[in-house]
Every structure is written in C-alpha cells, then in structure tokens.
Amino acid sequence: MPISVAPDGREFRFPTPEQDREEIQNLKTISNEQRRLGREIVVVQGMGFVGSVMAAVVADAEDGNGNPYYFVHGHDLVSRRSYWKIPVINSGEPPVHAEDPEISRIFPRCVKEKKTLRATWNKYVYKLADIVVVDIQLDAIKPVFGNASTGYCDLSAFRRGMRTIGKNISPECLVLVETTVPPGTCEKVVKPVIEEEFKKRKINIKKNPPLIAHSYERVMPGVKYVSSIRNFWRTFSGVNNKSADLAEEFLNNVLDTENYPFYRLDSTNASEFAKVLENSYRATNIALMLEWAKMAEKIGVNLFEVIKSIKVRKGTHDNMLKPSLGVGGYCLTKDPVLANWAAETLFNLDETLPIAIHSVNINDTMSFHTVELIEEIFPRLVDKRIAILGVSYLKDVADTRHSPSKLLWESLMEKDAILSVHDPLVETWPEVGNMKVEKDINVTLQDADIVVFAVGHKIYLDLEPEEVIKACGKPSFIVDCSNFLTDEKIMKYLKLGCEVKGVGKGHVEYLKEIRE
After folding, report:
1. Taking residues 457-461, what's their average pLDDT?
2. Residue 117, domain member (yes or no)
3. Would you give the distance in Å from CA 312 to the centre of its chain?
C-alpha cells in the first residue's frame, strides 16, 4: 500500500476504501455535533505553509464569552507529498516547522483541548461546509532563467481544486480565496468553474450565484508566524455584495480587525491586483538598490549608511529596502510574473509590466554579484574551500523556498569549489537533493579559505571575528552579503589579516587605510 513520509521520517499508509467509508460517517457525526453547539463549519483547502496555520487560527477564534465561532476541517490530498499532514495534525502536532512558539501551542490547543480542528482527506467534507477557505499553493513557472517575461501560471491544479468545491458545496457556502492568484482569477477562473459545476447539479445560478470572495494572506515565517495571520491588515473583496458581506463577517470573527482594520475593495480583480502590486513594488525596490550597491562599491561608499541617512526624513523614504545575496521566498520571486501573465492571458492586454519583470530578472540573478565579489580576490575557485553561512531565504526562519543561497551554491559548485554549508534552523535542504545541513559551525568553517555571510541569522551576527578565524585555522576572505557585519567587526577581521568585501560596502577600502 502506498505511503506518505513526513519530514521527520515517519511513514503513514494511505487510507483503505473501508476507512474512506468510515471517514464520511465521522465527518457527518462531528459536523452535526458542532452545529448543535451553534458553530459554523469551515473547510480549509490545503494544509501547507499558509493553510494549516490559517485553519488553526480560525479554529482558535472565540466570541466575547470564550465560545469558539467555528469548527474547522482541514483538507488535503491523498498523495505521497501531502497525506502525512493529516494524521500529524490529528495528533495535535503542527505540520510545519517554525520559530514561533505559538505554533507548538495552537495546534494541540485546538485539536485536543477545544476540539475545534480536525484534518481529513475525504472530499465529502465540502458538502458540510458553510465556508471554504482556499489555500492551495500556486506558483509561477519561469522556464528561462533570467528571463521572467517567459514566465506563466499553470492553473490546472488550482482549477481541479475549484472543481472539487463546485461539485460538493451548497449554494449558500462562501468560498474565500486566500491564495495569491493572478488578477482576474476569481472572476475568470473560480466563478466560471463553480458555475459550471452548479449547472451540472441543476442549481439555478441566477437565483443562487456562487458566493466567492478574495482576501490575500500576508503570512510571514519566523517568530511572528501566527501573528502575521491574526494580527495584520487585510484587503478583501467579493464577486458580489453578499459575498463581500459574508467575508467581512468571517474576517471580523477570526482576525484582530479592531487593531488592524481591513480594507474592502469593490472587486476581486482589485484585491488580487493589490497583492501582486504590493510585492512587485518591493521586488522593484530591491532590484533598484542592487544597481546602487554596485556603484557604491566602485566609488568607496557605504550604501547602508547612505540609506540610513535618507530615512532620517520620515514619511517619504521609509520603505527603502536594501540589496543582499538575493531575493527568495514564495512571494517576491513570483508575484510580478503572475501579474504579467494575467495581463497577457486573462485580460489580453498589449501592454504588460516590463519594469516589474526586469526587477525579477535582476533579483533572480543577484547571487551572481556575490560570486563576482569573491572572484575579485580569487579569480580561480577550483579546490577553494568556501563556507556558506545560511541556506534559508530569510534571517531567523527555517524556510528554504527559492533561497538565493541555492543559486550561490550551484554557481560555486560549477567552479569546482569545495563547499560546506551551515544553518542553525534548517536540517535538510530540499531544493538541493535533501542535502543534510551541518549544525556544527566549527565543522563548516574548518580550513575555509572564504566565509560567506549569506543570511543574517542571529547566531552569525553574534559571532566574533576571533571565533571565526580560530575555527577556520587561518585568516580567510570574509564576504558580507547584506550589511551583517558592523564596521567594528570588519576592522577586527582586517587586523586579523583577513580580506573583506561586502555587497554595497565600498567603504571597506577606506577602513583598510585607517586600520592600525
């Protein structure tokens, strides 16, 4: 019988036909009991990085008297990749690893204490739903590296998810799409698919039009994982007023809208547009900074001090970002591509988004600049020992999705360097063949000719230069990818006989001149 293997190695057998039948009865019984308690039934579709935690947040929501508003069924597929999440959640464990301590509390609280959360594989659950929250992963595909204009969105799996919903839900059920989607998706994909399935079921779509809303998530990994769902500003909309009204009521119950007011837009096109514009703005901001970083390096300027000086004037440049090893994660790497593809494919527009797409191209290849900095000191990297500190895409998180460290690793491997990698939070690196990541930093640094501070994990920021050089066993070439090292530490490295370079840190040459 097929099995699904959890990240920790536990194996879970797929359910049998008999278990399928039993599960349907379980779903009916549990949902009926919850309705008698006055709770609506919410189904969250997709138990991934966003959906599983969203399900827990909804299950945790209470009224002023401490009574839960909802009972939540989390749904995922019977597949080798996903099925393991269902028994893990039902045991009260989180299916995601996070630094936020609330993650390890909210799942057992909702599953075992409140008994307001349960996961299932059976699609019958949609027949019981008052609200379906869609959190299906949707990615942009970029077939040509460094040419994001060729990127597109494969909606086939997303459409299948919508078809499952349309085949099962009651006409009164609200479908709230949280997934970041190309503008036009709710109107041009979700609505037509559900309408088609309603018609097959002889549901009159004029009397009972599908109730569809959109409210994009802004989930951030790290120590504020849960808070980034519950305590954060939201934009939302509906395909009609009733849909938007139902979404508003639901979000008011689940989120802290008193302290973080939400914003209602007049169409799902607008709210879908808002998410991809928000992230395209940030991606473009970062890409612009790389251009200035290169100039700063050439003319002896510390770009980061310049940015700090500009931000003294509040209100106009508070959102100036900074260059780094590169841009990673799930949003900035794909959202401009989703918007560009939507302009061409869903709206048939002649004009697309060249600035946003050019920014993606710059950000996707940004790691090459760190390689260039290394080659300024070591033009030939064959057999050079290089220690990469950090493989996640963001400081103090364990998420490696689209990490720029991957491109750095691949580029240096192609040059026949001898690489070692360390990350205090990442056990294995899925994007690099599930490579085991070293946990002992001294092992990683041993005999290193070059040390790359790739990610700003706190453990790296706290390292003293003397510790690093002692572990290396010799003065090494230190590369700072995003202002992780203070000038004081850079001076220490220089005094210890090290060479130092940094992205946007042209002033290091000046520091060399003034070292004692």
Report:
1. 95
2. yes
3. 31
CB 407 within 8 A of CB 362: no
- Tell me the pLDDT tens digit for each residue of 375-393: 999 999 999 999 999 999 9
Joined together, the tokens standing for residue 60 give: 């945790």
Domain extent, residue 464, equals: 367-514
Does 219 map to a domain? yes
The reported pLDDT for the residue numbered 394 is: 87
How many domains is the chain partitioned into structurally? 2
Q: Kindly state the tokens that stand for 355.
A: 């600035």
CB environment 126-163: b (16+ within 10 A), e (fewer): bbbbbbbbbbbebbbebeeeeebbebbbebeebeebbe
Q: For residue 348, tell me if it sits in a domain.
A: no
Specify whether 244 is located in the same domain as 375.
Answer: no
Are residues 380 and 264 part of one domain?
no
- Whole-structure pTM value: 0.91
Residues in the chain: 516
Contact 62, 70 (CB under 8 A): no
Single-letter residue type at 473: G
- The span from the CA of 303 to the CA of 458, in Å, is 22
Residue 435 is encoded by which pair of tokens?
């490579």
> Rounded CA gap, 260 and 314, in Å?
22
